[in-house]
Amino acid sequence: MLVLAYFFLDGLQYSASPEYVAIWIPVLGLPIGVLVGAWLLQGKSKGRLASLLLGLLAIPPVLFVAFFGLLLATNPSWH
User: Fold this and answer.
1) With 0-12 CB in 10 A as exposed, 13-18 as middle and 19+ as buried, what is 76?
2) CA distance 20 to 14
3) How deeply is 8 buried, as exposed, middle or buried, from its count of CB atoms within 10 A (0-12, 13-18, 19+)?
4) Is CB count within 10 Å lower at the N or C end of the chain?
5) How many CA atoms lie within 13 A of 6 on its CB side?
6) Local structure of residue 75 (DSSP, 8 states)
């Protein structure tokens, strides 16, 4: 979340156009919605479902690390 917020705020200094903000609304809205949804589920004593929802946020970073781990392990030739 902090990385997304950093890139959003950093980009605002270069372009504060409505198109820029329109592109970033879903990019920021989805993780914020997941966090708020998990927080509300936790408040309703549905901790397991809240954890499952938060697990969705962990999928992209895990895939990113797995991809670069695969690149390092296989040492591909880029020729």
Assistant:
1) exposed
2) 10
3) middle
4) C
5) 3
6) -
DSSP three-state, residue 73? helix
Where do we find the tokens 């917020």? Answer: 5
Q: What is the 3-state secondary structure (H, E, C) of 3-58?
A: HHHHHHHHHHCCCCCHHHHHHHHHHHHHHHHHHHHHHHHHHCCCHHHHHHHHHHHH
- pLDDT one digit per residue (tens) for the chain, 79 residues: 788 889 888 988 888 788 888 999 999 999 999 999 999 999 999 999 999 999 988 998 999 999 999 999 998 888 7
